[in-house]
Design brief:
Elements (H helix, E strand, L loop, with lengths): L20 H22 L10 H7 L2 H18 L10 H11 L2 H14 L4 E7 L5 E7 L10 E7 L6 H4 L3 H8 L5 H6 L3
Antiparallel strand pairs: 1-2, 1-3
The structure holds manganese (II) ion.
The site of manganese (II) ion has 7 residues, from helix 1.
Length: about 190
């Protein structure tokens, strides 16, 4: 099965200034496209050829895992951003408070995990099989699906995600990113 570049649910200039058009042109248009192209080149003739992207992420390792997970992670990351952010819906706010003490405490802990990742990686909010919410700091292409957890929210902290707009200032990117999160989508993923 051939994997395709997903459509963005907003225009490439719609997230500026927090995330510029140039960042999306590179991050979505070039980085994500390259992961997809690599994946499509690597899977013909392997057991992964007819699997869904999620199955590949759960089962592959090495280069196929890296390119499949980067495809999955970026698709999820971009689809969870919005130019018209609204507040956190009550059910999700309650769940976050239950797990982390308060919504503010969750944001602080998630920001700290994102900023603390050494080198390239992804911060995640995920739900474990018992329904509990967890924050995960993953390096490389790491994804909670490989740990049997359901991803709810992710933040890309690879340098390519912020270097055009923020240079080396990852913490400033993390701070600005909070205002782009589509909380309705995050809530819709709760089990
Ligand atoms: Mn990225």
């Amino acid at each position: 099965m051939k994997h395709l570049l997903p459509r963005l649910p907003y225009a490439q200039d719609a997230l500026a200034p927090a995330m510029s058009k140039e960042t999306l042109e590179y991050h979505y248009g070039k980085h994500l496209q390259t992961y997809i192209d690599n994946l499509n080149k690597m899977i013909p003739g392997t057991p992964y050829e007819d699997m869904t992207l999620e199955e590949i992420v759960k089962k592959a390792d090495g280069g196929i895992f890296n390119n499949a997970a980067q495809t999955w992670n970026h698709t999820f990351f971009f689809e969870t951003l919005t130019p018209r952010p609204a507040g956190i819906p009550p059910r999700l706010a309650e769940k976050l408070s239950e797990s982390f003490g308060s919504v503010e405490a969750f944001k602080e802990e998630f920001s700290k995990a994102s900023i603390g990742i050494f080198g390239s990686g992804w911060a995640w909010l995920a739900q474990d099989p018992a329904g509990r919410l967890k924050i995960l700091a993953e390096s490389g292409a790491g994804n909670p699906l490989t740990k049997g957890m359901k991803p709810l929210l992710t933040l890309d902290v690879w340098e390519h995600a912020y270097y055009i707009d923020y240079r080396n200032r990852r913490a400033d990117f993390v701070k600005a990113w909070w205002d782009l999160v589509d909380w309705k989508k995050v809530e819709g993923r709760l089990q």
